[in-house]
Q: What sequence folds into this?
């Protein structure tokens, strides 16, 4: 079987035109507990914000269809699905394109973020289900990989963290070189920039979408180290140093822009992995988190300067963070184009 790269396909940048955004309605009672309704409201607010700019399809269990429909409103399309959890960035497909009008998808292996969570059989099949529904060609990714663990600029540069992609709880039989080969053959990566660690107490084992993301070809927005006494200072400073010394595709130096951190917050005795970087780039907009923090405004201003032709919409993401992720984690963009069969 051929690989996407052999068929002329690659993963486009998130700021390319979208056909829709995929989301999944919160349903894991053991995760959200008494805060389930708060999670529903927060997901609905994100869905409504994105739906102002592009179509949104919300995957939802049948028993939650009434609540989801009411809270999201008529602007969000409901689609019933078997779900275990609500993080489509990690359980949905990685969509790839031929650079013209054709779109296909990759269904990677999924094991509950390195078996941090049990009961993920439905989510492990979700990517294939979505691609089948779209009548879109599905490549089988030969790795356990979550969408939040990678970020691309659409021109051949990919960033990821060693903590996550090289973690033996994902792919214990693959070494770094083998993983890089898969990323090249399936996503079109020509240069991979390895960062070290993610944020403290991030149950994803250091997803890159909390610490760095591309905002333009060869341009990375990265979380600033902040307070030297903060536990996240050392790994974030190390990541900045790696980015500034790295080269992107075609040997070009990477431009690095820093984004401030919100103040630390805890929930149930653990630090919550807050990050303004965990935003979603929609058609004509950036939907980014706020945390009722003094840095909300300055962070928004930086993002607005980087995307002058897009509206910047902030949504309070504190209820989402109780589940362990942010706005980027609960969204999955499908590029515009016709499905390749």
A:
């Amino acid at each position: 079987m051929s690989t996407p790269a052999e068929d002329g396909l690659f993963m486009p940048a998130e700021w390319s035109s979208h056909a829709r955004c995929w989301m999944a309605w919160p349903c894991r009672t053991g995760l959200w507990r008494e805060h389930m309704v708060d999670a529903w409201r927060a997901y609905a607010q994100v869905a409504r914000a994105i739906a102002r700019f592009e179509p949104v399809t919300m995957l939802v269990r049948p028993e939650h269809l009434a609540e989801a429909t009411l809270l999201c409103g008529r602007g969000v399309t409901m689609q019933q699905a078997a779900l275990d959890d609500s993080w489509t960035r990690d359980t949905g497909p990685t969509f790839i394109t031929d650079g013209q009008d054709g779109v296909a998808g990759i269904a990677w292996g999924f094991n509950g973020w390195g078996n941090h969570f049990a009961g993920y059989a439905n989510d492990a099949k979700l990517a294939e289900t979505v691609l089948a529904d779209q009548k879109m060609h599905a490549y089988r990714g030969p790795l356990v990989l979550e969408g939040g663990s990678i970020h691309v600029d659409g021109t051949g540069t990919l960033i990821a963290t060693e903590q996550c992609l090289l973690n033996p709880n994902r792919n214990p039989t693959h070494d770094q070189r083998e993983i890089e080969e898969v990323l090249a053959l399936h996503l079109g990566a020509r240069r991979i920039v390895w960062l070290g660690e993610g944020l403290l107490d991030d149950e994803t084992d250091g997803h890159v979408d909390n610490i760095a993301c591309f905002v333009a070809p060869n341009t990375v927005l990265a979380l600033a180290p902040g307070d030297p006494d903060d536990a996240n200072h050392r790994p974030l400073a190390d990541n900045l140093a790696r980015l500034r010394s790295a080269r992107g595709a075609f040997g070009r130096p990477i431009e690095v822009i820093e984004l401030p951190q919100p103040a630390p917050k805890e929930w149930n005795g653990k630090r919550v992995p807050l990050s303004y970087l965990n935003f979603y780039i929609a058609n004509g907009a950036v939907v980014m988190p706020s945390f009722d923090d003094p840095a909300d405004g300055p962070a928004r201003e930086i993002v607005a300067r980087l995307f002058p032709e897009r509206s910047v919409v902030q949504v309070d993401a504190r209820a989402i963070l109780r589940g362990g992720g942010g706005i980027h984690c609960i969204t999955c963009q499908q590029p515009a184009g016709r499905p390749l069969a």
Summary: Residues 18-336 form a domain with the L-arginine/glycine Amidinotransferase; Chain A fold (CATH 3.75.10.10). The mean pLDDT is 97. Residues 179 and 188 are 13 Å apart (CA to CA).
